[in-house]
């Protein structure tokens, strides 16, 4: 007869693995027997920690407390519960954060456009207009207003835009004013660039072709999910 609960030793401590296909009542009984035997065999007063892994079973808070009551005492403690299941709400939040929000519009003075995760804006941000995202901001068009990326403190975010005009760029808590460039240079070439926070926590403006070298993780998005 196969066990419902198995014990595995790791460098970090022990894992208690509960089969997701078996009854929790059976698991409780086996946990009582297993931990009782381990306490008899213990030769040290040092506390032993367990990670409880439940595979495709997502435990309720009551079920976690029940397992803690069985296992924990002055010798044993549970450090965490891990499963291969995520709640639909968390999955949707993850997908929302990983999928760029597409906006095709003009952002005029006094208007605010926001996004959870990355934003791709096709259009112009006029003076007094604001675009804001918790992730990166990519603007296919002219930025004359304000772009604030990484609004929750994510300093590895970037802003990509045409920076020929006076504009304000914020990344996390860092602020940088883009000054209007020489008119002759504007006519000679496209000035799509990107703004980022360097290792000294200072905002820098760099050429677009340097983006992959400075932020190589941006090349690790597959199907809207970060593959880093």
TrEMBL record:
One of its GO terms (biological process) is division septum assembly. Residues 105-198 form the Septum formation inhibitor MinC C-terminal domain. Belongs to the MinC family. Cell division inhibitor that blocks the formation of polar Z ring septums. Rapidly oscillates between the poles of the cell to destabilize FtsZ filaments that have formed before they mature into polar Z rings. Prevents FtsZ polymerization. This is Probable septum site-determining protein MinC. The gene is minC. Keywords: Cell cycle, Cell division, Septation. Interacts with MinD and FtsZ. Residues 5-80 form the Septum site-determining protein MinC N-terminal domain.
């Amino acid at each position: 007869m196969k066990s419902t609960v198995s014990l595995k030793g790791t460098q970090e401590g022990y894992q208690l693995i509960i089969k997701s296909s078996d009854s929790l009542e059976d698991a409780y009984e086996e946990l009582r027997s297993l931990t009782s035997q381990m306490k008899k065999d213990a030769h040290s007063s040092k506390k032993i920690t367990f990670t409880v892994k439940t595979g495709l079973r997502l435990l309720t808070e009551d079920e976690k407390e029940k397992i803690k009551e069985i296992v924990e005492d002055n010798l044993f403690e549970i450090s965490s519960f891990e499963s291969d299941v995520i709640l639909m709400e968390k999955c949707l939040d993850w997908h929302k954060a990983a999928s760029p929000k597409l906006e095709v519009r003009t952002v005029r003075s006094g208007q605010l456009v926001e996004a959870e995760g990355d934003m791709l804006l096709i259009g112009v941000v006029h003076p007094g207009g604001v675009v804001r995202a918790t992730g990166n901001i990519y603007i296919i068009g002219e930025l004359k207003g304000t772009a604030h990326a990484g609004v929750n403190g994510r300093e590895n975010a970037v802003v990509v835009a045409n920076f020929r005009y006076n504009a304000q760029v914020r990344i996390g808590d860092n602020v940088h004013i883009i000054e209007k460039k020489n008119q002759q240079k504007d006519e000679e070439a496209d000035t799509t660039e990107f703004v980022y926070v360097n290792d000294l926590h200072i905002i820098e403006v760099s050429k677009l072709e340097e983006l992959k070298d400075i932020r190589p993780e941006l090349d690790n998005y597959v199907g809207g999910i970060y593959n880093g």
